[in-house]
Amino acid sequence: MTTWALEIEDLTVAYHSKPAVWDVDMCIPEGVLAAIIGPNGAGKSTLLKAALGLIPKATGHITFYGKPYAQARAWIGYVPPRGSVDWDFPTTALDVVRMGLYGKLGWFKRVGKNETELAMSALEQVGMADYAHRQIRQLSGGQQQRTFLARALVQDARIYFMDEPFVAVDAVTEKAIVAILQSLRAQGKTVVVVHHDLQTVTEYFDWVTMLNVQLVANGKTAEVFTSDNLHKAYGGKLAFLNDMGVEVR
């Protein structure tokens, strides 16, 4: 019997009466690396934020391992898009990672030695231990993304959500992040990524949700990442499709 890490029923989100996500029903099983893909303006990030309660929804029922968000919060890790973070905030990489433990500690309990060790271990996992005491504004784009990944890792979540984690990172950092995500999957965790590079979908992900305001396809990558579905999602914007992937103009 399949264990569903995420189930979404009848999700609609609208901005100024215009639907950004319309009547979406989808599910993602436990233990997969899943991509949410679609053209610009398709509602990918909107769907993610609505699922996590970061923006209001018009309609919809969302569960994580069968539980609503309020009951499943401790199971969820989230890496926001880089553009939503105030990088001028005066804090270090270590401080950012320790923030990931506040959900377990509570905001009024002091972070102690054990929490600092957990945070340092997470920074070590992403290759950022040497930058633990550096201000986040002094980090490169790739280093900043690794730091926020470490913050999610320290939560020891069951399901991780990441919004465009490969934007503004170099190829070395991207490969390092993918290796960490694959390690999480090997541990039975579920990882859901808003993704834009179609050429790496088949290499990185084993589950795909294809969106263009409405759901186009949802399932195993080998079954739904097809020319027909891609043309439904992207229309005439596809330049070509071959065995190596898809290029989008």
Dominant shape: globular
Computed structural class: alpha/beta
- Spatial gap, N to C terminus: 41 Å
Largest beta sheet: strand ordering: 5-6-7-3-8-9
Q: How do the helices and strands follow one another from N- to C-terminus?
A: EEEHEHEHHHHEHEHEEHHEE
Structural summary, described in words:
The chain has 249 residues and is α/β, with parallel strands linked by helices. Helices cover 33% and strands 29% of the residues. A hairpin with a 2-residue loop joins strand 10 (238-242) and strand 11.
List keywords for this structure.
33% helix, globular, three-stranded antiparallel β-sheet, 10 helices, 249 residues, 11 strands
Strand and helix map with partners:
Blueprint: E1 4-15, E2 18-29, E3 33-37, H1 44-51, E4 59-64, H2 69-72, E5 76-79, H3 93-99, H4 102-105, H5 113-125, H6 141-153, E6 159-163, H7 171-186, E7 190-194, H8 201-204, E8 207-212, E9 214-220, H9 221-224, H10 227-234, E10 238-242, E11 245-248
Parallel strand pairs: 3-7, 3-8, 5-6, 6-7
Antiparallel strand pairs: 1-2, 1-4, 8-9, 10-11
Summarize the entry for a quick read.
By secondary structure, the chain is an alpha/beta fold. It has helices at 44-51, 69-72, 93-99, 102-105, 113-125, 141-153, 171-186, 201-204, 221-224, 227-234; strands at residues 4-15, 18-29, 33-37, 59-64, 76-79, 159-163, 190-194, 207-212, 214-220, 238-242, 245-248.
